[in-house]
What we know:
The complex is a heterodimer of chains A (556) and B (490). With 556 residues, chain A is an alpha+beta fold. In chain A, helix 7 (316-329) packs across helix 13 (504-514), helix 8 packs parallel to helix 9 and helix 8 (345-359) runs parallel beside helix 13 (504-514).
Amino acid sequence: xxxxxxxxxxxxxxxxxxxxxxxxxxxxxxxxxxxxxxxxxxxxxxxxxxxxxxxxxxxxxxxxxxxxxxxxxxxxxxxxxxxxxxxxxxxxxxxxxxxxxxxxxxxxxxxxxxxxxxxxxxxxxxxxxxxxxxxxxxxxxxxxxxxxxxxxxxxxxxxxxxxxxxxxxxxxxxxxxxxxxxxxxxxxxxxxxxxxxxxxxxxxxxxxxxxxxxxxxxxxxxxxxxxxxxxxxxxxxxxxxxxxxxxxxxxxxxxxxxxxxxxxxxxxxxxxxxxxxxxxxxxxxxxxxxxxxxxxxxxxxxxxxxxxxxxxxxxxxxxxxxxxxxxxxxxxxxxxxxxxxxxxxxxxxxxxxxxxxxxxxxxxxxxxxxxxxxxxxxxxxxxxxxxxxxxxxxxxxxxxxxxxxxxxxxxxxxxxxxxxxxxxxxxxxxxxxxxxxxxxxxxxxxxxxxxxxxxxxxxxxxxxxxxxxxxxxxxxxxxxxxxxxxxxxxxxxxxxxxxxxxxxxxxxxxxxxxxxxxxxxxxxxxxxxxxxxxxxxxxxxxxxxxxxxxxxxxxx
Amino acid sequence: xxxxxxxxxxxxxxxxxxxxxxxxxxxxxxxxxxxxxxxxxxxxxxxxxxxxxxxxxxxxxxxxxxxxxxxxxxxxxxxxxxxxxxxxxxxxxxxxxxxxxxxxxxxxxxxxxxxxxxxxxxxxxxxxxxxxxxxxxxxxxxxxxxxxxxxxxxxxxxxxxxxxxxxxxxxxxxxxxxxxxxxxxxxxxxxxxxxxxxxxxxxxxxxxxxxxxxxxxxxxxxxxxxxxxxxxxxxxxxxxxxxxxxxxxxxxxxxxxxxxxxxxxxxxxxxxxxxxxxxxxxxxxxxxxxxxxxxxxxxxxxxxxxxxxxxxxxxxxxxxxxxxxxxxxxxxxxxxxxxxxxxxxxxxxxxxxxxxxxxxxxxxxxxxxxxxxxxxxxxxxxxxxxxxxxxxxxxxxxxxxxxxxxxxxxxxxxxxxxxxxxxxxxxxxxxxxxxxxxxxxxxxxxxxxxxxxxxxxxxxxxxxxxxxxxxxxxxxxxxxxxxxxxxxxx
Lengths: 556, 490
């Protein structure tokens, strides 16, 4: 730790961080554009100028340095005992002196000379650093009367548009593509005031390489102004009209921390949220753009049962009673309960409890999306397991020891389909955005006497079902996911379920109640508390303790 | 009559001096042989420190001091020779490269021997096609005769020299911009610190030296420190007590252009006055001197009554200008200062690399303002100063004055100072390109304000007579503040 004097505060900060971060830790804003904590610091925007103080031998005292320094490259390091400033400080810096304020005003004036000031039609308005810092640190009027540069609007790739006029050439996007994605599609063309961000192009302007890597969407997030815009979000909503909740991306087993931004009528976009050990500042485009299914018109909205070979709409009362009748009529050995790697820990725990306590069956399966492609980047990985909670589902479905002290094995993959040959009633929870069935899987499910499917779409599985229970996606419920590295993290309810669809754990509880199970949960946190008390490794995984940062599983 | 003292340029006009054999006849490489035979590397570095040799590239930083910052325990170290001579008004290195490239190679050999360097990159300006061809020939000849390569002259010293052409950017003459360009990146200066002496080419310790600086080394080694320090003035630096020696030793290749009868490169002792130099260059062409740019286009201008300033590093710095690269441009009374500034600002607006905000968008803005003034579209505005009093009609009311101000001149000064403040010598930019822009802009405007005002007032480009165009000495802040250094009494 280094002792620094920050304006008139005397504070301790970790060794080796820069002034911007040190100030941020103590609630002082040092405005910056080019600096991003996840990238290198070129110090080219000159916005974060601060005034360090140095020892001046002729005067024999500490004085403000002659030149201002950029806060992003001014590193705070512990000084040797004989080099301490004023006898005790490792660093003295002023972030609000008149010189600093003047410099900020000047830089902001320069940043705005060629800016089109088209905030009324700009998507970034409301979450724009240029707006915010101009408001807090800038001039109220422009002295610029010359002609403004009007560089062209460009289509950089599948999801990214560049409004060059708004660009302040901070080069965050270029450094992101170089350092994190490692593919380096972006670069600067021209020179001086004609600097433009661009992709490689032939002489006639046809693109030679598009910004189409799987992390491309992040450049939109890190763009401090409205230059890089997501086509997916273009003109859809003003940022201040959207509500936000913290959540976890369900796209793969990495479990990137995200913010779900939504309005009454659905989810509008997903944004990455910082987590030092999981995704840092980033998320992939598969996850970012993979929320569309939540808003789909095709979502299951009412329960259905099979009558005369046709799935027909019915009421919850009816379908739950039908399920209860068939489950209680079947022998315990012939019932198979299949949990979902898309589901939360709470749902899978309750499902297992239903199987173990009420249905008394040991035949537990796990179902999820097919294995996809793995993508590795210099500072990011997209995992091949496309389910958010495979590890958590395994832990939950494998809970509850029998009389002999061991838990029933969770059946997965091909063995699951083989084992269905003598099953009479199968209760399958799905919830995947897409899960096509192979012929073998289809045959195995067709052979089942009574198939109950809890799903969000009339998917391949649901089409074979005798009873269909409409359930919810990750934005419509509370719960927790365990990622592949063993981090338990929370998802939060954002939007309401469509139609009559119900939250998964409520459905399971309803089924249990009809079978005389003593289930009495009122919210997902209660189930999580029970998990923390009973499942090995999850002792800290109550919702209060998980919070926004998640907890790591303990070795128990 | 002041005579040229030709040292670097002594044999420049000998036919065939660019070939190894002729160069050899004129003591070529003998000074390097002497270095190898008689001196240890540290002794050479010590000699250079004592000689007071200052970098000739523009900043005038002590060469010996620069060498002392290079950590000797990190391998490899590099020498980077800056032959990207692109400052408008400067053309002295080009003749060395085109006519006597072996001298540069000899200088490089001595520098590398002193610093224990085994790789040298010569970053040569892309437009110097002839210079590049001559240099490449000389390098090939030096390899052929065993003065470059492995185990030079059987003394166990290795040195490889590579020449690398630039692609025509002014900013690649800035040492870190040059290094970036050499590494194959976009030519944009780096943040300092770390300085190249610690982390330069490929993030290794690097000595960056101008061609002219390196060409001085063979003569310092050959004729000794005493001979070298006998040329040029040594001032007393009065910031210290007793005053420390501030050496401006050796000769300088002054490139004189503009309104003189015989423009060209003149090799003279440091410390001549502007007037003497114009005389050496055949006298003025025209009636009167209006202004002199003393050190390349980025240096602040000198008015006609400032011509007694000595042209050396110390005197010009204390006169709030700089010697820079020694490119002296003389303007006579027919020249329009607004037009001259416009010319320079067009150059800088074009050459700004665009890396950092103030320079990227400030430089074209300054150019646009000057362009407007030159087009006769400069703006004036009025300021009213309200003051209560008895008005003409005998009532209590506003008796304030209305004053007309030259809005564009204030704007020009303010914008230029926001890029780099010439009064406090602080800049918000990454490199010193910012000050190279605001220095001329502010100094031209301040020293020749009447001419700028006339252009705005008349709505067209107006050239005033010298005395009317220049602000009088008593209103010239830089002139009032200038210090004339005193020679060190020994």
